[in-house]
Amino acid sequence: MNSAAPRLCLALLALLAAALAGCASPGAVRVQPWQHATLADYTMNPDRDPLGASLTEHIYFSREAATGGRGVGGSGCGCN
Length: 80
Fold this sequence. Notes:
Shape: flat
Structural class: mainly alpha
């Protein structure tokens, strides 16, 4: 018997187990009605501090040597 066959079966079994794990079920990501108030809180807003967000983005893109910011294609190589 080929030695790759048991490895392939084991890999397929591991992939199947990962696909059937609890994080892949649609019920795990559903937000319940009483949780909407928590998610709508001001602290959950990613844009609550525009100055802090712009400074964080400036530091990130300076380190990565990339241009364009969020939502814009391109990179630091100048090929956009």
